[in-house]
Specification:
Blueprint lengths: L1 H4 L29 H9 L5 E6 L6 H7 L4 H7 L13 E6 L14 E7 L6 H8 L3 H8 L12 E7 L5
Helix pairs in contact: 3-4
């Protein structure tokens, strides 16, 4: 943190170098929540379907925002970051998505439910999508399923289903 605040290119310091050290504006007693609790509270502020995404090597905010069809500004805001902040593998990000609108009903007639689905032998993305009347692309997006990866029996998927469309 000190390295980024002071625009240092390495961890090495030189004697006599002046550093900026951040200081909280209020006493410690004023802050009732830890940094983790504050981040969780920030990540809980959103509307639609909450998707949790674990950052992988090579990911960027820009690339993740494009994959989920949201802006980098939104993605950063939902995660208590600035759009230019770095991300690192293993970091958990929250993404809020609007459910895809069905073709035959108005938005007022929809009831979206989050379902946990356990993959069975012989299941495919197409079969699951057809059964629950959702798009394959949505299932991939909600569960970070890579295009060439095959589903495995016992694997858990999260689905956001319009229960007014499923028989």
């Amino acid at each position: 943190m000190l390295q980024s605040i002071n625009n240092l290119s390495s961890h090495n310091l030189r004697a006599g170098k002046t550093l900026m050290v951040p200081k909280s504006a209020k006493n410690a007693e004023f802050y009732s929540q830890s940094a983790t609790q504050r981040l969780q509270k920030t990540q809980a502020k959103g509307t639609g379907n909450k998707v949790e995404y674990k950052v992988r090597a090579g990911d960027s905010l820009w690339q993740i925002s494009r994959n989920f069809n949201v802006s980098t500004r939104q993605l950063a805001k939902w995660n208590g970051m600035a759009p230019g902040d770095p991300i690192h593998p293993g970091q958990n990000l929250v993404i809020w998505q609007q459910a895809s609108a069905p073709d035959t009903t108005s938005k007022n007639d929809r009831t979206i439910r989050k379902l946990a689905y356990k993959v069975r032998k012989g299941d495919s993305l197409a079969a699951i999508a057809d059964k629950f009347k959702v798009r394959i692309a949505d299932i991939r997006q909600w569960n970070q399923v890579e295009p060439n990866r095959h589903l495995q029996p016992g694997e858990n998927l999260t689905l956001f289903v319009d229960v007014t469309r499923v028989n």
